[in-house]
Amino acid sequence: MSARLGIIGFGTVGQGFLEVLIKKGADLPVKLVGIAGRSKGEIFIDEGIDPAEALRCVAEGKNLNECFKDALRLPSLELVRKGNLDILIEATPTNLETAEPAFTYIKEALKSGIDVITANKGPVALHYSELKNLGGILRFEATVMSGTPVLGFIEDNLKGVEILGFRGILNGTTNFILTEMSGGRTYEEALKEAQRRGYAESDPTADVEGFDALAKILILVNVFMGKALSPTDVKREGITSLPATTGDFKWKLVATAIKKESGVEVSVKPERIYPDDPLYYVDGTENALLIKTDILGTIMLKGPGAGRLETGFAIFLDLLKVLKEREKI
Ligand code: HSE
Prior knowledge:
CATH architecture of the largest domain: 3-Layer(aba) Sandwich
Number of strands: 12
Helix content: 25-40%
Number of helices: 12
Largest sheet: 6 strands, mixed
CATH topology of the largest domain: Rossmann fold
Distance between the termini: 11 Å
Bound molecules: L-homoserine
Number of domains: 2
Strand order of the largest sheet: 3-2-1-4-5-6
Order of helices and strands: EHEEHHHEHEHEHEHHHHEEEEEH
Strand content: 15-25%
Structural class: alpha/beta
């Protein structure tokens, strides 16, 4: 029998996931029954929604309820409660202060035995220790380095290996800005260019003040270093007051976690990076992560950290894992 899917949040990420599902998952035993979003409408069709039709509808600038006139309307929480879902794809925007409303959707789903795949950093960064014990599978590959499957890599390939620390560039927007600045642009010019290309939001605070990178390093630490740290445990500094680079180094916004006798020390801050450091060669919107281990030395992963299809693909990977765990494939 097909797994019944519901999607909450139908912006770039939710749509990117459907696009990947159509391209790569045509034969999967899944049936999309509900989509609920803040601005794109809310539709529920028990017999199944055609994903291509839903994408076409929003691409034409329409609301889903205009295109699927006979569909029932189930707003987000109702979709979780009444949709008879097997899997919830939660793709609403990240809120790093309260993690809401995503935290409520995810909690409600997991408590009802619905498996959850989320791209939302808030609930995982702030509430992982609570969420992991609620029943149901919770997967969140898209939250860190999006299309570069770093969480799955560690989970699948580093079993039994002790992680001694992480060090990386986990925010693409700031890395783009800093790369532009190393070419001589000022911060303001580089930010404008990042906004023009659609990397930075009109309010860029979450990226440029380091909150996004903080959430990602917290997720890595809390999931793989057995800690339950919160944002206030992290020393954080943004990039807004850095000068344009001159000299033989580049500024990078570096997220670091180091295992110490006393616990794990975590920080996000701009650092001068020189050519003998592998992070020197990570430019533009790319991300990279160095994973320091007890028996393998240091492993480095580098790749895309954002993007519609990249993030959609991370959700797709999680979907494959959930289906496998539930013995559907
Ligand atoms: N705003 C993030 C970045 C992408 O620039 O890396 C989503 O995590």
